[in-house]
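Hi again,

Forgot to attach this to my earlier email, sorry! This is the prediction with adenosine monophosphate bound. I've pasted everything inline since the attachment limit keeps bouncing my files.
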Amino acid sequence: MWSTPAPYNSAVIRADLHCHSTASDGTLTPAELATRAKAAGVSLWALTDHDDLSGQSQALQAAAACQLPFLCGVEISVSFADVTVHIVGLGIDPEHPTLVQGLAHTRSGRERRAQAMAQGLAQVGITGAYQGALQYVGNPSLISRTHFARFLVANGHCQDTNEVFRRYLTPGKPGYVPHQWATLGNAVQWITQAGGIAVVAHPARYPFSPSAEYALFSEFKQHGGQAVEVVTSAHTGADAARYADLATEFGLLASTGSDFHSPTESRCDLGSMPPLPGQVTPVWEALQHRVH
Ligand code: AMP
Ligand code: MN
Ligand code: MN
Ligand code: MN
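Structure tokens for the complex follow:
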């Protein structure tokens, strides 16, 4: 065991290791996020855009400019047992060819999926959704359900993005199109090969039975996964306690992050999460050599 140098001491650090920029479905640029994180008192930050690394260099530069310790990151879309699961990668090398190529392949189906989503919405009378969603897209290779949600809210179909997801964009609803994302094994291997640590993102959000969730974590470990998000905006305090216990049971490190997307849409701002429960080992204790 090494001793933790002062700047990364878990008792004093305020980490936010999960958020999104205009490189995926966030509304702020990487530089705007760096400034906002710094102002919020964040002392270790990661940008984790969906399936894409194009925001990392701007984030790194902006973080350096305001002396904010930074980890490169990503959030990979995975299909596991017919459910979409998100695997965050922290401390990755954003230029590692295996990761870069894997993500390019993961992104490649989004365009076709978006066209099919628009067709589904047209069938219930919502026309022009593809062009409409594109108005909100910051990265042409990353059109997501969130961009459709913003269009539907702006056009008065729903009050907020949550309502759009509930009525139109979740399994069984008119704008939902099933999609085959990366496999769990591939996502964990790409992250690990790129020098990072794989993290199961917001585990309380998945509709798994206890046995399917056990299978997820068992397979995740077997593939080399090392951490679980314990504290995040989608979790209650009870969820955090439950996944802290699960981290102990599976021998996983613990991560924390707001999953911030936008000042007007997100439940929680950057840097606003409660501390990790005392019993867990924070993921950054194993990532000090990857901090910029
Ligand atoms: P996609 O990768 O295109 O399937 O879009 C997934 C994104 O949709 C997530 O990362 C969230 O930002 C957003 N999302 C999913 N479910 C909801 C919800 N119920 N309310 C608001 N946003 C959601
Ligand atoms: Mn998102
Ligand atoms: Mn997610
Ligand atoms: Mn996220």
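The chain has two domains: 15-107+182-290, 110-167. DSSP finds ten helices and seven strands in the chain.

That should be everything now.

G.
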